[in-house]
Structure formats: C-alpha cells, structure tokens
Amino acid sequence: xxxxxxxxxxxxxxxxxxxxxxxxxxxxxxxxxxxxxxxxxxxxxxxxxxxxxxxxxxxxxxxxxxxxxxxxxxxxxxxxxxxxxxxxxxxxxxxxxxxxxxxxxxxxxxxxxxxxxxxxxxxxxxxxxxxxxxxxxxxxxxxxxxxxxxxxx
Length: 153
What we know:
The protein is mainly alpha-helical. The protein contains 6 helices and no strands. Helix 1 packs across helix 6 (127-152), helix 4 (78-96) packs antiparallel against helix 5 and helix 5 runs antiparallel to helix 6 (127-152).
C-alpha cells in the first residue's frame, strides 16, 4: 500500500520526467543542429559572425576566432550529444513506468552529456555543467528511491 509520501514522490517524479523529456527532445534537435553546423565552411561562418558583430573581450581583443573554434569543437560532438539525450529519454520513460533501472540509465546519460562538453570545451569550462547535472541526478535519486524500495518489498 502506498503512503501519502510515496504518492507525492511519484507525482513529483512524473512531473520532473515530463519536463526533462521535453528538454531532452530539444537536446536531440540541438545535437542534430550541431551536426549540420559541421558542414558550414569555417570561412563562411567567420564572415557571418563578423557581419553580425565583432566579439570583444574586456581587454578589447577580438575573440571571434576563439568563439568560432569553440562552436566547431562542440559541433563535432553533436552526434554524441543527440545520442545521450535519446538515452536520457529512455531512462525517463523507465522512471515514469516505475522502474528504478531508469535512474541508472538517466544518470549514465547525464555523465555522457557532461563528458561530451568536457571533451569539446575542456573540463574547467564544463565544471558548472557537471555540478548542475550532479544536482539533477541527486534530485532524481531522491524522488525515485521509493521505486527501489517498492521493488524489494
């Protein structure tokens, strides 16, 4: 028999899963967009950036090339970004269906997405993303822990 707390956690889990699924679908499309960016010649992209605006840092230096390099570094990882977002959708679906294994799939997808950014732009630049994902994994663990306990009983 479900307690009131378990029912609240189940509702919270479903809401989180629905919102995260929406974000994951957007992430899949973003990954596909990154794949298509790879095909744009670098010179054409540079010209488009310069026409839009010249990017300056606080010292007045043109940072257009640095930004362009970072965009291409992330774009080269687009297929992995899309894949890990698809894996996240699978994990969230399992969680909504009441399977605690979905948490492990979700956690692995978050680790994968963070790894993609760490490879693309460097660990120190992706540290805040890692912390944010760790918080989400902890939240999901907290609200899905009752699924594991229900499976044991």
